[in-house]
Amino acid sequence: MIDEADRTPLVEVPVVRIDRLLEEQRRQAELIQQLRDQIAVLEGEKARPKFKPSGMEQQTEPGSANSDAGAGDATG
Questions:
Q1: CA separation for the pair 18, 12 (Å, rounded)
Q2: Rounded CA separation 61/4 (Å)
């Protein structure tokens, strides 16, 4: 990383350009992979598998029986 004191306009311009080029390269790599997958399908090969979400991201319904487990009338 470049220190703030060293970030003159002469330095900032190439840094911004490099960031843009890296982002463009990332998008191109994704597109190339999609095209390779499409070519594989057209040639009769299997494309990379698409994984289904595990469902762990889903939140439980408020007021469900499990959400209140362990709360309430416990005397100890």
A1: 10
A2: 49
pLDDT in tens, 7-45: 888 889 999 999 999 999 999 999 999 999 999 999 987
Residue pair 26/32 in contact (Cβ under 8 Å)? The answer is no
State which H helix or E strand residue 33 sits in.
Answer: helix 9-42
Kindly list the distances between the CA atom of residue 7 and the CA atoms of 21, 29, 67, 76, in Å, as whole numbers in the listed order.
19, 30, 53, 64
Q: Which SS3 state, helix, strand or coil, does residue 72 take?
A: coil
Contact 47, 37 (CB under 8 A): yes
Task: Note whether 48 and 37 are within 8 A (CB).
Answer: yes
Q: Classify residue 7 as left (phi > 0), alpha (psi -120 to 50) or beta.
A: beta
